[in-house]
Amino acid sequence: MSTGLAVLLFITLIAFIGMALSWLSRPSGDNNDQDTASTDDVGTSSNGESTRNIDQLIETVNEKLPQTQCAQCGYPGCRPYATAIINEDVAINQCPPGGDALIRELATFLGKEALPLNSAFGENKPAQIAIIDEAVCIGCTLCIAACPVDAIVGASRLMHTVISNQCTGCELCLPPCPVDCIDLIEQPVTLSRWQWPKPA
Amino acid sequence: MAKTCMKTFLQRLISSPQTPALAGGLALQRNKPGLPVDGVIRILAVPATVSIPLTNYKREILQPGVHAGQHIKCGDMLAQGIVASCSGEIIGIEPSRIAHPSEMSVPCVIIKTSNTPDADTAVHTPLNSLTIDRIERCAVHGLGGAGFVTADKFRASGEIDNTVETLIINAVECEPVISCDEALMMSEAANLVEAIASVVDMTGCKRCILAIENDKHQAITALKEALQRTEVTPLIELTLLTPIYPSGAERPLVRRLTGIHLTPGTPPSSHGIVCINIATAYAAWQAKLGYPMTSRIVTVAGKHINQAVNVRVVFGTSISEVLKQTGNTPTHKDSRVRVGGPLSGFDLSDLNVPVTATTHCITVDPVRKQGPVLPCIRCNACSEVCPVDLLPQQLHWFATADDQQGSLRFGLMDCIECGCCDAVCPSNIALTQTFRYAKGLHREVQTANLAATESENRYRCREQRETERAAIREQKREAARARLSERADPIADALSRVRGKRKPSPDQPAKTSEPSPGSSMRVNQSDDDENDRNQSP
C-alpha cells in the first residue's frame, strides 16, 4: 500500500517538474532575438507587424554591409542591396568590399549557404582611398557629382580634393574624370591607425 | 596546507591592515639601482639640438603653430599642448622617428639650442594658488607612463559633479629597475608635500591618498618628516602598500584603495576620483611657480650599464645622447635598449629618438634568449597572477582565433597589458602581445563601424538632396508643359512673338505707335515666357 502511494507521489512530482520546465522554456513573445531571425519568421503575424519585421531585417542586413556605397553589387548603394537581399532573395555573395567575412556573417544571420564571393562583381581589395592629382585637375565637378558619400570638395573650374577620412574607396569617381587625374592608393598607416602586429 | 594559509593570512594582516592585497600580481625582488646616494639628482646638459614630436597621447598629429627659422623661448607653445623645452632657433619641422613600439616617424620640431643656457627664472608669473589653466599653459603631462594631459584629468572631474572626492597621488613604482619617482621623493620630499598641498587646494578634495610601497624606506621617512612640518597634513593620508607588481597601474590601484572597480573606458573622474603620479603633482607645482614642464627624471639602468643613474633630461634629447652623457653608450654587440620597464616596456632599434614625458626609464640589457613557443598546457599560472582577474589562457584562445565576441566576453578590454602572464608562462607564449593585437583589431573594427555609419548618413543625405532636386526639376517641367498646353495655337503664338521682337521699320510707324490691344497682350506674354525660360536651369 505504502509502496503504491510512494510511486504515485513520485509520478506526480515528475509531472510537476515537467510542467514547470515546459513553462520556463516557453518562447517569450516580446523578446525578439535578432541574431536568429530569418525571413521565414516574417508574415505569420499581422500585416503591419510583418512590414515592421521586414524593415528591421533590412536595417540589420544594411548594418552588416560595409557602407562603401560602391554599387559593385549591381544596386545603387548598400541599403538598396540589403533591401534586395531581403525582398527579392538576391544572392549574398555580391559585395566585394565585404568579402568572405561579410558572406559568412550574412549566411549565419539569414540561414543561407556561405558561397564564395562572386568574382563577376569584383574582387576583395585592401582598404583604399582616392587621391586627386591637384596639378592636373581641371575643376569639371564630374567627380563631385559621382561621389556617393560627398567626400570630394571643389568648385567649377577650381581644384578639387578628396576628404581622405571620408572616402570609402568606391572607385565611382574614376570613370567620369575627363583628365584621368584620380588615383586610388592603399589607405596609409598613420600613427593613430597603427596597431600591434599578431605574434608569430 | 593550513599552516601556509594561516601564514599568508597573518602576513597580509600585518603588512597592510586597511588596504586589501592585489588580486594577483607578481612579488618581484626589489631591484632599484640608480637611486641617488647623496640625495641629489644629476641634471643632464642640454644637447645641441632637441627634437619635439608633434603628437599627443591619443597619437594624433598636431598642427605646428611655429615655422622654421623662428627664434623661440623656453615654454613657448609649439602646438596645442606642446611647449618648447629650451630656447633657440627652429631649424626645421620634419618627420623623425619617435620612441614608440611602431617606430614610426611623425613631424618633429627641431630646435637648435642657444649657446647661452636658459636662465633659471620663471617664464610665467608665479600664482598664489594653482589653476587648471596654468597647468594647461605649462603643458603638464602625466609622468607615470601614459602621458595623459593633466589639465584634462582635472577638467573631466570638474565637468561631472564639480567636485573631486578623492585625490590619489600615485607614488607606487612597482616595476623593477624604475626608480625615478623614488629618487624624486628622496631628494625633494619637502617640495613634494607642498606640491601635493597645492593640488589638494586646487581640487578642493575631501580626501587625499598618497600611496607608496612599504619597502621605499628612505622615501617614506623623508615624506613623513615633510608631512609633519605642513598644515595640510590631516588631509593627506600616507598609505603604505605591499610591493606587488603591478599595483602602480591606475585601475588596480583605484580598486585597491577605494574598492571601486573601474570598467574599461570609464575614467576615475566619473567616480569623483583623480589619480595622478607624484612627479606630475611636482610638475603642477612647478607650473604654479611659473615653470613650464620641459624635463623629466629618467632612470638609466640595466645589466650592460656602467653606472645606473637617475638624471633630469630636457624633453627632445635623444636617447643616444642620454646614454652618452651618462657614460653608458652600449658597447656590447648583443645589447638591447629598452624604453619603459623590463615588463611593460618595448625594445628600440633606433636610439636617435627623443625623450618625452612618457620615457621614464631606459635600460640596456643583454638580448633575451627566448625559448621556443610551446602549446598551452593549461597550468593556470597566468590566471593566478592576473591583477584584473582575467583568464589569460582562455582569452589567448579567442584572441589568436580573431574571435572578437569571445575575447570581449572574456574581458579583453579589461587587460592592462602589465605582462605578468608572460613572465610566468612556462610555454613562452606571447600573451600580452596577443592581447595588444586583439585590442588593436577591436579598435580597428570599431573605427570601421563608425566610419560606415557616417558614410551611410552622408549617402542618405545625398540621396535626399538628389530626390528633392529632381522633384523641383519635375515641378518646373510640369509647369512649363501646362503653360504650353494652355495656348490654343503655339505656332501662331511663336510667330507673333517673333514679330513683336522685330525692329519697327520706318515705313510702318503706325504699328509701333498704336498697337492693337490683342497683340500688345501677346507681346507681353511672350516676354514673360522669355523670362521664364531664362530662369529655368
Strand and helix map with partners:
The complex is a heterodimer of chains A (200) and B (537).
Chain A: H1 2-24, H2 47-64, H3 78-87, H4 99-110, E1 128-132, H5 142-146, E2 152-153, E3 161-162, E4 182-186
Helix pairs in contact in A: 2-3
Chain B: H1 2-15, E1 42-43, E2 49-53, E3 71-72, E4 77-79, E5 82-83, E6 88-97, E7 105-113, H2 132-137, H3 150-161, E8 166-170, H4 180-187, H5 189-203, E9 207-213, H6 217-228, E10 236-241, H7 250-258, E11 273-277, H8 278-289, E12 295-301, E13 309-314, H9 319-325, E14 335-339, E15 346-348, E16 361-366, H10 381-385, H11 392-400, H12 404-409, H13 420-424, H14 431-486, H15 490-501, H16 509-513, H17 517-535
Parallel strand pairs in B: 1-13, 8-9, 8-11, 9-10, 12-16
Antiparallel strand pairs in B: 2-7, 3-6, 4-5, 6-7, 12-13, 14-15, 14-16
Helix pairs in contact in B: 4-6, 5-6, 5-8, 11-14, 15-17
What does this structure look like?
The complex is a heterodimer of chains A (200) and B (537). By secondary structure, chain A is mainly alpha-helical. Chain A folds into two domains: 38-121, Orthogonal Bundle (3-methyladenine DNA Glycosylase II, Chain A, domain 3); 126-188, Alpha-Beta Plaits. Chain A contains five helices and four strands, in the order ααααβαβββ. Chain A has helices at 2-24, 47-64, 78-87, 99-110, 142-146; strands spanning 128-132, 152-153, 161-162, 182-186. In chain A, strands 1-4 form a two-stranded antiparallel ribbon. Chain A is elongated and about 100 Å long. The model of chain A is unreliable at 28-44 (pLDDT under 50). Chain B is α/β, with parallel strands linked by helices. Among the domains of chain B are: 27-44 and 117-301, Rossmann fold (3-Layer(aba) Sandwich); 372-472, no CATH class. Chain B has helices at 2-15, 132-137, 150-161, 180-187, 189-203, 217-228, 250-258, 278-289, 319-325, 381-385, 392-400, 404-409, 420-424, 431-486, 490-501, 509-513, 517-535, and strands spanning 42-43, 49-53, 71-72, 77-79, 82-83, 88-97, 105-113, 166-170, 207-213, 236-241, 273-277, 295-301, 309-314, 335-339, 346-348, 361-366. The N and C termini of chain B lie far apart (92 Å). Chains A and B meet through loops of A and helix 14 of B.
